[in-house]
Specification:
Rossmann fold; 9 helices
Length: about 200
C-alpha cells in the first residue's frame, strides 16, 4: 500500500508524516530536490539534495515515478526504493504535492491511497505559511496563489482530513490504513486460495 499525504502549504503535512514514519512496517519515500538545504534539515531524512544537472540526468535515466518544477526548484520521487519497499510488504509513505500525488495514483491505481490534509480556514493556512518563515516573500506569494489549484486537486483524493488536532489526524489515518488493508482488492488472494482448496 502507498499512503500519499498532500495538501496546501501550511496544512501540516511535514508534522504528520514525521509522526507516521515512526510506525512499524512504514517506509518513508524521501523526495529528491534541487533546492538548497535549510538549516534544520538532514540529508537523506528530510530530502535528498542534488544539483540540477544530477536531477536532469536521473530524469533522462527514468529513475523518477514523478517529478516537477516547483517554485523554481525540481522535486521528484525515486522509483526503485518505492518498488523495493512494496515488494517487501511495506506501507510506503509519501509527502508530495497534489499534482505528483495524482500521477502516483495513475501509476499505482490499486495500491495508492491519497489523503488530502487541510485546515479549518484559508486564514489559518496564511498564518502558518507566514509564521514558519522558511520561504522568501515571492515564494510565499506564489504558494498562496497556487492554493485554488491545490484545493481543486484535493477533490480528487480518496480522503480529505481536516487538521485541527494532530492526534485526531493520526488516529484518522490509522483507521484509514486499517480499512484499506481490509479492502477486497487487497485480499482476493485469500478467497482464491479458499476456492482452490474447495476445488481440490
Amino acid at each position: 500500500m502507498i499512503i500519499v499525504i498532500s495538501g496546501p502549504s501550511g496544512a501540516g503535512k511535514t508534522t504528520i508524516t514525521r509522526r507516521l514514519r515512526k510506525l512499524d512496517n512504514v517506509f518513508y519515500s524521501v523526495s529528491v530536490t534541487t533546492r538548497p538545504k535549510r538549516e534544520n534539515e538532514v540529508e537523506g531524512f528530510d530530502y535528498r539534495f542534488v544539483d540540477v544537472e544530477t536531477f536532469k540526468k536521473w530524469v533522462d535515466e527514468g529513475r523518477f515515478l514523478e517529478y516537477a518544477p516547483v517554485y523554481g526548484n525540481y522535486y521528484g520521487t525515486l522509483k526503485k526504493p518505492v518498488e523495493q519497499a512494496l515488494q517487501k510488504g511495506k506501507i510506503v509513505l509519501m509527502d508530495i504535492d497534489t499534482k505528483g500525488s495524482l500521477r502516483v495514483k495513475q501509476i499505482f491505481k490499486d495500491e495508492a491511497v491519497l489523503l488530502f490534509l487541510i485546515t479549518d480556514s484559508v486564514e489559518t493556512l496564511k498564518e502558518r505559511l507566514i509564521g514558519r518563515g522558511t520561504d522568501p516573500p515571492e515564494v510565499r506569494e506564489r504558494r498562496l496563489n497556487n492554493l485554488k489549484d491545490e484545493l481543486e486537486d484535493g477533490k480528487k483524493f480518496d480522503y480529505i482530513i481536516k487538521n485541527i488536532s494532530i492526534d485526531d489526524v493520526i488516529n484518522a489515518i490509522h483507521s484509514i490504513i486499517r480499512a484499506e488493508e481490509l479492502k477486497s482488492i487487497r485480499n482476493q488472494d485469500i478467497i482464491n486460495k479458499l476456492l482452490s482448496d474447495l476445488g481440490s
